[in-house]
Design brief:
heterodimer; A: 212 residues; alpha/beta; Rossmann fold; 8 helices; 7 strands; B: alpha/beta; TIM Barrel; 11 helices; 40% helix; binds iron/sulfur cluster
């Protein structure tokens, strides 16, 4: 799941100004994160109208990151979109860009901050789980990912600062090395940790690549 | 035998080594380094120069090491993986070797969120173990991490690593040490010790695996300067284990500075008797002028 957080409303207002606006949400991750589902889009509509901003219309894309679906759906909202000078997108960074590809005449405004690829632990509680490094090595670590979950991406064991199983950088999150150690111990696979892991091949990460 | 560095020579001859830490200044004034160098000259076999410790910007460890070299002091240049990728790390190893630095301590580094630029982006391209291995391969095989060949001059570095006998998961600590040795560490400097019992348990395991014969273990000691520093280290510095009885001595003393000094002397006395410990590493944070008397009273002067 792509985890997003809605931007501060006042910050959004300053980028929107007073101009007519069309609001776009997303049926997938942003719905699950409560940052851009139907409920949040309607709440946003109400809040903007309270500030005397004209909302020309709204739509939930299915999902916003799907170019062909977006084109098809947005065609039906052509008039509402054309009346707007601003398009507020409550989706992830990808959804926002897919919309930018289609709508050229209005300013696209990012309504959400995109945080990470992570897990929904409980409602509205999320934790990062993957950096999309392009070369998954979780099986070496009992099924846990030190690349994304250790703030120092340590591949050969924990740093010296883990305290009571928590990370030295943030005591709210588990030290992933503590999880790795315990899991491998349970499975009697601690010998895996004796292998020196070579430097990671970051060229496999998707940073500058386009994958078909 | 040709020794790479004075530190290696002392350790290889089986003498008890002493190293001391010199923190570079928060500014470009070279006198701040020379002053600390003058105070501690002759008290240690080599001097650790920290690399933007606790992620606070200071004079670079390379430049500070260079200043010490000019004074005739031998540096242990610390390099962290926090701020450099493998290109910059290896480049600095070549540069360090070129200007006469012979000891490098490889550390992953304190996370940038603890320092004075918490908004910076950490690098962490490789970790300390991978860095140790990279230097070893540069030195012994003449190849860079990628496998590309070094063309002129292999860096002849005595490779150091840090170890924390007190951190969690506790049972993994000796395995971790073993990995650093396997990667190529020649000497180990430990986290400052306040809990001798726990350190002894770690050392028992180190000896039972014969690791004290594969690497030189240099035990860390930090004299506590005040109650404030004690509390700060106890509660806010990750990986430091100050037991209650030590903290209480600091709390109940009328002269905490004196007490901290006494505690350090006692710790050194206990530690030097532990089999397999080959040296002492003194980190006297903002208290470098205590180092000479600490070393003298512990019976480590004159240095070889
Ligand atoms: S190893 Fe790479 S792909 Fe696998 S979970 Fe971690 S960051 Fe994601
Ligand atoms: S405490 Fe654990 S998760 Fe946090 S930086 Fe250290 S090794 Fe990584």
């Amino acid at each position: 799941m792509i985890i997003t957080k809605q931007k501060d409303f006042n910050e959004l207002l300053s980028s929107i100004g007073k101009e007519p606006i069309f609001i776009i949400g997303c049926s997938e991750c942003a719905t699950m994160c409560h940052t851009g589902g139907e409920k949040e889009v309607l709440e946003m509509k109400g809040a903007l109208e309270d500030k005397n901003i004209l909302v020309t219309g709204w739509v939930i894309l299915e999902p916003a990151c799907h170019l062909q679906n977006d084109k098809r759906i947005l065609r039906k909202y052509k008039d509402e979109v054309n009346k707007a000078n601003k398009i507020l997108v409550l989706a992830c960074g990808n959804g926002i860009q897919t919309v930018s590809e289609i709508i050229e005449n209005a300013d696209v405004i990012a309504g959400n901050d995109t945080l990470f690829l992570g897990e929904i632990k409980h409602a509205n509680e999320f934790e990062k789980r993957c950096n999309m490094c392009g070369d998954c090595i979780e099986d070496l670590f009992g099924g846990f990912c030190p690349v994304s979950r250790c703030p120092k991406s340590m591949l050969n064991g924990p740093c010296g600062g883990s305290i009571d199983g928590k990370c030295e950088v943030d005591s709210n999150i588990d030290c992933v090395w503590d999880l790795i150690y315990k899991r491998l111990k349970e499975k009697k696979q601690l010998q895996l940790l004796k292998i020196i892991q070579e430097p990671k091949d970051w060229s496999k990460s998707t940073e500058t690549r386009r994958v078909l | 035998m040709n020794y790479r560095s004075n530190l290696e020579q002392v350790l290889s001859k089986g003498k008890f080594a002493v190293t001391a830490e010199i923190g570079p200044p928060k500014g470009s004034d070279p006198d701040k380094i020379t002053q600390k160098g003058e105070i501690t000259k002759g008290c240690a076999d080599a001097f650790n120069v920290t690399d933007n410790q606790t992620a606070v910007v200071r004079m670079s460890s390379m430049a500070s090491s260079c200043i010490l070299l000019k004074m005739g002091l031998e540096p242990v240049m610390q390099i962290t993986c926090r701020d450099r990728n493998r290109i910059a790390l290896q480049s600095d190893v070549l540069g360090a070797s070129a200007i006469g630095i012979k000891n490098i301590l490889c550390i992953t580094g304190d996370h940038q969120s603890f320092g004075n630029h918490p908004e910076s982006k950490g690098v962490y391209d490789i970790d300390s173990i991978q860095f140790i291995q990279a230097i070893k391969n540069m030195r012994d095989m003449g190849v860079f991490q990628s496998g590309d060949k070094i063309l002129s001059g292999k860096p002849d570095i005595f490779i150091g690593a840090a170890a924390n006998p007190f951190a969690d998961p506790y049972e993994f600590r000796v395995d971790h040490l073993e990995k650093k040795i396997e990667a190529g560490a020649n000497f180990i400097q430990t986290q400052s010790i306040f809990n001798v019992n726990k350190f002894n348990i770690w050392m028992d395991e180190v000896r039972s695996r014969g690791l004290d014969r594969k690497v030189h273990i240099i035990a860390g000691v930090t004299p506590l300067k005040s109650l404030k520093m004690t509390d700060r280290m106890r509660f806010h510095v990750p990986g430091v284990d100050i037991p209650e009885h030590v903290a209480n001595r600091m709390k109940n003393s009328g002269d905490p500075k004196r007490e901290g000094y006494e505690i350090a002397l006692e710790l050194i006395n206990d530690i030097k008797k532990i089999k397999g410990v080959h040296g002492l590493h003194i980190t006297a944070l903002f208290w470098e002028d205590i180092i000479p008397s600490l070393v003298r009273e512990s019976g480590f002067l004159p240095r070889p």
